[in-house]
Design goal:
This protein has 181 residues and is an alpha+beta fold. It contains 4 helices and 12 strands. The structure holds flavin mononucleotide.
């Protein structure tokens, strides 16, 4: 038997941290969970009006970082306070540096950063082209591959308004399914 529930349980959601500059190069960051991959090298995020959207409409650029267990408090802070009211970067003690390819800040506390150009922002839907991806060397294995376990990336659990760590490997993609062919 299945039981219908009132609220949609869409799991998991990513915890994306969007970095932008304002017109004076002051960095800001916000938390966005309603987002994901749109195309091979494009991302999509559903955004209401924020300091972030004001910024990216001017600079035509933003960064995306993936929140981790270590950065959870900072990530949530970026989602509960607006950069229009507080200097979130300063208050959180977040480390930023200039993007190498776009006019947006790299969020150094987060292991992965995507540098994105705004393709479009219309009716609350942001589409961005990923022009570069960089990873903190501390999270790279000796063969150059990404050490996902070490990063402890978190997801947003909408059913309990909590953050959870991305878990263990349980299978091989594009492979295990062939067992049933
Ligand atoms: C877990 C979480 C997820 C969020 N996801 C989104 C989202 O996908 N889209 C959105 O517009 N706002 C989202 N928010 C709200 C913004 O992060 C929040 O309004 C923030 O203060 C905006 O910052 P800014 O004004 O500095 O840009 C989320 C907040 C939290 C805590």
């Amino acid at each position: 038997m299945r039981k219908e529930i009132k609220n949609m349980a869409f799991l998991p959601l990513p915890v994306l941290i969007i970095g932008t500059y304002d017109e004076n190069n002051k960095p800001n960051a916000m938390n966005a969970a309603w987002g994901g991959i749109y195309d091979y090298n494009e991302v999509i995020v559903s955004l209401s009006r924020h300091k972030t959207t004001e910024n990216l409409e001017k600079t035509k650029a933003f960064t995306i970082a993936f929140a981790t267990k270590e950065t959870e408090v900072m990530a949530d802070y970026f989602g509960v306070v607006s950069g229009a009211k507080e200097d979130k970067i300063a208050k959180a003690g977040a480390k930023v540096s200039r993007g190498k390819h776009v006019n947006a800040p790299l969020l150094e506390d987060f292991p992965i950063n995507l540098e994105c150009e705004v393709v479009s922002f219309k009716d609350g839907t942001l589409i961005g082209k990923v022009v570069s991806t960089s990873v903190d060397e501390r999270y790279l294995k000796s063969d150059g591959s990404i050490d996902v376990d070490k990063m402890q990336i978190i997801c947003f659990d909408t059913t309990s308004n909590t953050y959870r760590i991305l878990g263990d490997v349980v299978g091989k993609a594009f492979s295990d399914g062939f067992k049933l062919k």
